[in-house]
Amino acid sequence: MSKNSGFTLIETLLALSILGTALILLTQSWSGAFMSVRKTQTNFEISALLERKMSEIDILYRGKSIESIPEEQSEDFGEEFPQYAWKLKSKNFEFPDLSAALTSKDGGADQLTISLIKQLGEGISKAIKEVTLTVVFTPKGTGKKPLEYSLTTYFVDFDKELAFSMPGGG
Fold it and tell me: In degrees to the nearest 10, what's the CA dihedral of 92, 104, 108, 122?
């Protein structure tokens, strides 16, 4: 009986298919890890840019009249971060109308209380400005939609006076 010292065709094909499957799994695992690291880096950069820009805006407008804050402004972050841009949008704070809640209680609220609450709400609305900063990340050459991350803060003008007038009075 003679012994063949080589592998059969089936053994060779089986070994190649196992090796090919292992390489595919290894490649997918590496690719997933790489994408995860890239996404984490992008999120870190966005949060750092949001924090940096919001600090700049805070320093620029803190202690000033809220009318000095522009309604809209946008710019990029320069050559250092070419894929990133920022947008600022501001609007007057909208104080909710509490008169319905006051009148729905047992016995309701009198006209004087409702009037004072409305005046207080109007005064607060004039003294507070809502500022939303958005950082936009546009991936290069991927054709993907830009990612937007936003942060909202409120600026208060403590120099605004609340004016109260008595209903029916002059």
Answer: 0
Q: What mean pLDDT is reported for the chain?
A: 84
Residue 111 has phi, psi (to 5 degrees) of -60, -35
Residue 37 counted as domain residue = yes
Please list, residue by residue across 16-48, b when 16 or more beta carbons sit within 10 angstroms of its beta carbon and e when fewer do.
eeeeeeeeeeeeeeeeeeeeeeeeeebeebbee
Is 95 domain-assigned? yes
> Do the domain assignments include residue 123?
yes
Name which of 138, 132, 144 is nearest 46 in CA terms: 138
How far apart are alpha carbons 40 and 98 in whole angstroms?
A: 43
Residue 54: give the domain boundaries: 9-156
SS3 138: coil
pLDDT at position 71 is 94
Model confidence at 51, in pLDDT bands (50, 70, 90)? very high
How large is the average pLDDT for residues 139-147? 81
Q: Kindly provide the residue ranges of all beta strands, DSSP E only, lying in 13-146, ordered along the sequence.
A: 72-76, 84-92, 128-137
Helix (H, G, I), strand (E, B) or coil at 105: coil
